[in-house]
């Protein structure tokens, strides 16, 4: 537990040691405002809720979260510090989890900094703040899912650009897996249970429900088990590819 | 105590470490010698638990590196090749981080960090980010990191590679200082032979992953054909044919247009008195007369060249 904490703190601090953290936060805030107010039609909708705000998060995260995740392991490989880290008495689980949690908390901080929109919507109308809270939770879980995928992709390579591209593609697959675009490929030959399974993997369908304020235990479990699965995969990849 | 037993590592078809076995006892400073690509770093990576061996076993102070990895790693300090450090951290923050990972806390942590900082003279750069440091300082940060928890076993992969002569001298001084504690084990890999004579109590030579020689630097030097050879520096070139007739002389080598004559000794023979006497009788004008202990680089070359052939 101690070494998990130490790794977590070092990683989180390292985001803020470079301009990366500030650039990420500024871009995230600007883009989420642009999406909400211009593309989402926040004012035009006339609804006192944050649906137009959350609606764009899966797409916003698609590019921003892999940018955070890409350095997790690729940078350690590139600079050789992976050898230092892995010869310290730290268990594999503590390393993987510590790094992941630091990235997740970092994205969480960026997400919390969108709080002016809560103030705005409360000033303009009388929203359901419980639903807004659930929406934030869902958004953070969604980011966690993207990050876990990105962590695994980052472990695959020493090149951060490759890690970024792989993560975007993998996350995209998880977004569109509920779309007719993908399902039509399977429809006609695949059994129904497989279709349902593929559709149920989609971030979008799960996130849609949570962002509207409906917190289903199954959706929560979905995100958590998705993260666990990708983090286990990260640990396996690191063990297999240490020497490269 | 380090025990290495039939350690083997393959990368695809290439056998990097081939059935390597040896032991290192407390108090020893082991020089791990070999040409580039001999398997030195790979062996060290397996010893420190970074790479899993494909065969054989290794244990550190009784802890098996595969089954009790974390316990074994707690006994060790390790400087990986090139001394990688987190470049965006400050020196102080980095050392504090390592100390925390090593489970040091409170006054204990402060004391150990201060001690390492002092031993490596890092006081002046504590608040600089590691990326901005010179190569010598980076190496010292890497060494400070390795000795922070006062480990029983210190494994240093090419600690002086790429440093200037002053820095090399400093690092060697430090290794000697660390090794003065008779309960410690220090293993350094190098391809610089003067380093072995300077700091090591024992040298192990490997090439192509196999053990070629194991002994004290003196023993290795004794395997040189220059062991007990006598070198004369002369004002004028002389006729050296008569030297060959002296008892125990196995050969004569002439260099620098006859101004330098090296008389080789047969194994076990001491020829210095006879050669000196001969020079006096012939009234050679000798500027310098010296006995060689043996040339490690020559031993190294002949050992590793045999292997390559």
Automatic annotation (TrEMBL), chain A:
<keyword id="KW-0812">Transmembrane</keyword>
<feature type="transmembrane region" description="Helical">
    <location>
        <begin position="219"/>
        <end position="238"/>
    </location>
</feature>
<feature type="transmembrane region" description="Helical">
    <location>
        <begin position="58"/>
        <end position="74"/>
    </location>
</feature>
<keyword id="KW-1133">Transmembrane helix</keyword>
<feature type="transmembrane region" description="Helical">
    <location>
        <begin position="189"/>
        <end position="207"/>
    </location>
</feature>
<feature type="transmembrane region" description="Helical">
    <location>
        <begin position="12"/>
        <end position="38"/>
    </location>
</feature>
<feature type="transmembrane region" description="Helical">
    <location>
        <begin position="131"/>
        <end position="149"/>
    </location>
</feature>
<dbReference type="Pfam" id="PF12679">
    <property type="entry name" value="ABC2_membrane_2"/>
</dbReference>
<keyword id="KW-0472">Membrane</keyword>
<feature type="transmembrane region" description="Helical">
    <location>
        <begin position="95"/>
        <end position="119"/>
    </location>
</feature>
<dbReference type="GO" id="GO:0005886">
    <property type="term" value="C:plasma membrane"/>
</dbReference>
<dbReference type="GO" id="GO:0140359">
    <property type="term" value="F:ABC-type transporter activity"/>
</dbReference>
<protein>
    <submittedName>
        <fullName>ABC transporter permease subunit</fullName>
    </submittedName>
</protein>
<keyword id="KW-1003">Cell membrane</keyword>
<feature type="transmembrane region" description="Helical">
    <location>
        <begin position="161"/>
        <end position="183"/>
    </location>
</feature>
<dbReference type="InterPro" id="IPR051449">
    <property type="entry name" value="ABC-2_transporter_component"/>
</dbReference>
UniProtKB/TrEMBL annotation, chain B:
<dbReference type="InterPro" id="IPR027417">
    <property type="entry name" value="P-loop_NTPase"/>
</dbReference>
<feature type="domain" description="ABC transporter">
    <location>
        <begin position="2"/>
        <end position="233"/>
    </location>
</feature>
<comment type="similarity">
    <text>Belongs to the ABC transporter superfamily.</text>
</comment>
<dbReference type="InterPro" id="IPR003439">
    <property type="entry name" value="ABC_transporter-like_ATP-bd"/>
</dbReference>
<keyword id="KW-0547">Nucleotide-binding</keyword>
<dbReference type="GO" id="GO:0005524">
    <property type="term" value="F:ATP binding"/>
</dbReference>
<dbReference type="GO" id="GO:0016887">
    <property type="term" value="F:ATP hydrolysis activity"/>
</dbReference>
<protein>
    <submittedName>
        <fullName>ABC-2 type transport system ATP-binding protein</fullName>
    </submittedName>
</protein>
<keyword id="KW-0813">Transport</keyword>
<keyword id="KW-0067">ATP-binding</keyword>
<dbReference type="InterPro" id="IPR003593">
    <property type="entry name" value="AAA+_ATPase"/>
</dbReference>
<dbReference type="Pfam" id="PF00005">
    <property type="entry name" value="ABC_tran"/>
</dbReference>
